[in-house]
């Protein structure tokens, strides 16, 4: 069972998607995302299986929450550096986003 210390070890930050591409080599439909987490962290890459709910063009400029302190993960020929957070629904993954626009790099608290 997880405890509060496990949660506090996660570095969850707000980032803004600045670039998207269709991830053709992924086993399941996915996008490659480039996410700007602000000056301290910079731009990080992520693979996200969110094609059922989002077009790649509507993602650019969208703020998302991501875990920035997980180890990198190789997915096909792409190195995913961040785990973007979302909710699994019957219609696909819905991204978790701030209700109001916040600064890139702001930490979930």
From TrEMBL:
<keyword id="KW-0694">RNA-binding</keyword>
<dbReference type="Pfam" id="PF01588">
    <property type="entry name" value="tRNA_bind"/>
</dbReference>
<keyword id="KW-0820">tRNA-binding</keyword>
<protein>
    <submittedName>
        <fullName>tRNA-binding protein</fullName>
    </submittedName>
</protein>
<dbReference type="GO" id="GO:0000049">
    <property type="term" value="F:tRNA binding"/>
</dbReference>
<feature type="domain" description="TRNA-binding">
    <location>
        <begin position="6"/>
        <end position="109"/>
    </location>
</feature>
<dbReference type="InterPro" id="IPR012340">
    <property type="entry name" value="NA-bd_OB-fold"/>
</dbReference>
<dbReference type="InterPro" id="IPR008231">
    <property type="entry name" value="CsaA"/>
</dbReference>
<dbReference type="InterPro" id="IPR002547">
    <property type="entry name" value="tRNA-bd_dom"/>
</dbReference>
<dbReference type="InterPro" id="IPR051270">
    <property type="entry name" value="Tyrosine-tRNA_ligase_regulator"/>
</dbReference>
